[in-house]
Amino acid sequence: LIARFQRKGLPTADHADCAELPAKELGRLRYLAAILRLSSALDRTRQGRVVDLEVADSEDKMVMTLLHHPSLPPIVELHKAELERTALEKSFGKPLEFKTRAAPGGA
Fold it and tell me: CB 3.0 to 4.6 Å from 50: which of 1, 17, 42, 86, for a disulfide?
């Protein structure tokens, strides 16, 4: 069921496959679908540019820092993550900010 929402739409109580899910399970499904979308975006070029992810979660926003190999900036991956921003913010329930930084030690 999670994979169904990897590319299009978000899980809602109105969706036929989600109609019988309790609210808590629907929330969990939204969260897991968001993680799957994000992981797909962060490996968009299939070149291993993003080597790690740091997440700073506060009450008012979530900041995700993409750690990348120094010689491989994650330009495409960051762009794809930005395109997914609205869906991710709905799933996480707060504004989301992306940053990038070279991984320590040359990854």
Answer: 42
The whole-angstrom separation of Cα 28 and Cα 34 is: 10
Give residue 76's pLDDT.
96
21: Cα separation from own chain's centroid = 23
CA pair distance 22, 101, nearest whole angstrom: 39
Query: In the predicted model, is pLDDT for residue 107 greater than 80?
Result: no
Q: Is it the case that residue 5 has pLDDT exceeding 70? A: no
**Band of residue 51 on the pLDDT scale cut at 50, 70, 90:** very high
Strand order in the sheet with 50-57: 50-57, 62-68, 96-102
Among 91, 96, 82, CA closest to 12: 91
Q: Are 25 and 68 in contact (CB under 8 A)?
A: no
Q: In one letter, which amino acid is 81?
A: A
For CA atoms 67, 68, 69, 71, the dihedral sign is negative
